[in-house]
Amino acid sequence: QEAFGMVFVEAAACGTPSLGFAVGGVPEAIAHGVSGWVLPEVRARPLAEAIERLRQDPELIRRTGQLAATWARIEHSAEAGAHRLHRALVDTGMAERLGLGPKLALGRPADPPRGVEHLSRRHRLVALARNPRLLRYAALQTAIRLWRLLPLEPRVRFREALERRLGRSLSPFR
């Protein structure tokens, strides 16, 4: 009874397509025809028919498995989340207030800017207060960490509100 169905995304990341019913967060976790198939009815017969169809076509499973792995990297990787967050910050004007540029360049995750690696936590805070570049870096890293910690429902509500405000989808698959 997962609200989102992380198991479907994990299966996709491993190149395994999934079958699921259109209940709860399953339609969000399976890209129909890309990472698996969403069955409209919660009944045994449609599920059995889908399993039989897949059993008879191993090539379809292989091709969809490749698509599923690509989809998982595009839609659910940390880099994809960081880019969506940065795009949302740019689109809402927050990136400009934070002094972030219009593009996000990701290096290795969580690399601090040079010159602060050796500092204690207290001294890093002092350095942040004195250096706008470090402050912007810390703000973006914190925003990304907070976004990941939020439960799914507030993230979905925020994303939907932002999409309504922008008049377009933030997802590459919609």
Tell me what you see in this structure.
The chain has 174 residues and is mainly alpha-helical. Helix content is 61%, strand content 5%. The chain has helices spanning 6-13, 26-29, 44-56, 58-76, 78-91, 94-98, 121-130, 132-149, 152-166, and strands at 18-21, 36-39. Helix 4 (58-76) crosses helix 5 and helix 7 (121-130) crosses helix 8 (132-149).
Number of strands: 2
- Poorly predicted ranges (pLDDT <50, ≥5 residues)? 107-113
Q: Which range best describes the helical content: under 10%, 10-25%, 25-40%, 40-55%, 55-70% or over 70%?
A: 55-70%
- Strand-residue proportion: under 5%
Structural class by sheet pairing and helices:
mainly alpha
Provide the succession of SSEs: HEHEHHHHHHH
Q: Provide the spatial order of strands within the biggest beta sheet.
A: 1-2
Q: What's the overall geometry?
A: elongated
Separation, N- and C-terminal Cα atoms:
25 Å
Largest sheet: 2 strands, parallel
> What would you report as the Rg, rounded to the nearest angstrom?
20 Å
Mean pLDDT: 76
The number of helical segments is 9
